[in-house]
Write a structure and sequence with these properties.
This protein has a seven-stranded mixed beta sheet, sandwiched between helices. The protein is an alpha/beta fold and 247 residues long. The termini are far apart. Helix 8 runs antiparallel to helix 9. The protein is globular. The protein is built from ten helices and seven strands. It has one domain: Vaccinia Virus protein VP39 (Rossmann fold, 3-Layer(aba) Sandwich). The structure holds S-adenosylmethionine.
Length: 247
Amino acid sequence: MSEQIKNLFSSISPTYDGLNHLLSLNTDRRWRKRTIGQISFSKERPVAALDLCAGTLDLSLEFLRQYPAGKVWAVDFSHDMLKHGLTKVRAHSPNEGPLRGSAPLQKRIHAICADGLQMPFPTEFFDVVFCGFGFRNFDDQTAALKEIHRVLKPDGQLLILEFFRPTNSLTRIFHNTYGNFILPLIGGLISGRKEAYRYLHRSIADFYSLEECKKLFEHAGFTIANAKNFSMGVCSLIVGKKPPLGV
Ligand SMILES: C[S@@+](CC[C@H](N)C(=O)[O-])C[C@H]1O[C@@H](n2cnc3c(N)ncnc32)[C@H](O)[C@@H]1O
């Protein structure tokens, strides 16, 4: 299954960013900005972040924008997705514009092609882990949370931005209409991979709801610090915390 997912994302990687912005009418940029805005560490601190299922690095870049002293390790098992992301990193001149930081951009981001279920990091390495629209692609969410818990420091934060299975009937109607017709039509036309966009919709319908996912967090040893809907529940963010030592 994971091999199929990897091939699917590699196949849509050339048009992934453009379609994301088009299909969300650019709202995805705001969702990412608000997600990173929920990190509670001081912006002056050299926060070590993991962007899990980093894809084309949009969340990583947003993190570096908001945390000028921060560093990010971006993990994805699709080499092609990361390659497209790194082109965007190179397009930014070091220490210029809104991505100005304490070190050149290329030194603040490490792209690593690896499976998120078995990451090449020591235990308790990261202050914060975020994952944008990738969590539902894991074969096993409980195993993913266990691995995230391992690499996160005590008192660290976990942020999952995701399209959860809608439970409210209005949001369900919106998701079904959009996912069954608009997503495969426009996604298929532009990427040439209609089936990939059908899968993306099915993966939402088969996924956990926000409430179910909060319970998974708690079972994995996280406390829920916050959970919020964006754009009237089109997608949602769960913020979890790994308890500090001794708790
Ligand atoms: C929908 S994209 C999200 C990309 C990016 N985070 C964003 O916000 O646009 C999901 C990404 O998760 C990656 N992915 C899925 N399962 C994975 C796994 N087990 N390990 C590493 N990456 C995975 C895919 O290759 C894909 O790039």
